[in-house]
Amino acid sequence: MSQQDLDLVDLNSFMLRDASTRLTSCAQCAVTEFNDWSIRHPYIVAGALLCIIGTPELILTPLRLARYICFSPFRLILWPFKLLTRFILYIFGFRREGVAKGSYAARYQSRRYGGYVPPQSTFSKFQAETHGATDDHDEDGDEIKSMFAAPVSFIASIGLLFVLGREWGWWY
Fold this sequence. Notes:
Elements: H1 3-40, H2 42-54, H3 57-70, H4 72-92, E1 94-95, E2 98-99, H5 104-112, H6 122-131, H7 149-167
């Protein structure tokens, strides 16, 4: 390894440290500006926080959209493999309506399981894959609540107490 290679490594680590320092500085500036704005307009911030407490999807929906957009290239790369998997399951006899009569899957099910298929078996996972059971709805068709809804509401409640407590003189 030459001296020039060592200098390039040092330069890259310096640039990385500089970029992380700038990012931290920008985040600090944004938080400070928001804090100053919340001091000048506490009731507007309290109203917004109340809306977030009541409907945490206001915060979670844009985050889900950002996740979907960021992971779109990976979805496009994996899409052919998902289609290939569904095609192979179709060949074996897994259909949207259930297992096809007289298929390899039907013979396997009758020999191996009889009338009962265990819930966590590979066979049941294949059935769920062909039925499209990976969507975000429960048995009644209602949308499943996000596991992040309660923590978002809790954090917004703490923020509401902080903003109103500061306004009403509970602390300075």
